[in-house]
User: What shape does this take?
Amino acid sequence: MKTSQFFLLSAAGAVSTVSAFTSGAAFLNTKPVQSASALNVDLANGAMSFDRVCREWRCKYTGDKTDSESLEAISKVVDEYLPTIKGLSEGVKVNRLVCGACKDFKLMITVPLEDFGPWEESEHAPEKDFLAKLEEIEGVSQIETQTITNMEI
Assistant: This one.
């Protein structure tokens, strides 16, 4: 099942939300596996599977990566919300990605499949507050979110 949502947070930048998954209980093609997760979902006719789902929060920043004021301000927002994000799930993994060439900033929050449904139902809290803070930063644009699988293989 796939849902797509797009909404404008303000004139400062469009925020788009794409959800590729519904709550964990809605997966029809789940099966038990011998891993830390209770569920495993098949993809590609069984050639791949996943048991972890990632929510990515991303934007563009301005300036050189070594002294960008907008990237520094983004870092402060991450520091503010990181304790809340790390408390989402016992199995949460948080990755920060910064590309100096294309000026991308990404925060990837990955949770076990069984924890994703409740988090999605809460609108991925604290996502709205986090994105609103990004919107206030001068030089930040193209604020977007995406839900994707994220498996270590």
The first strand starts at residue 3 and ends at 10.
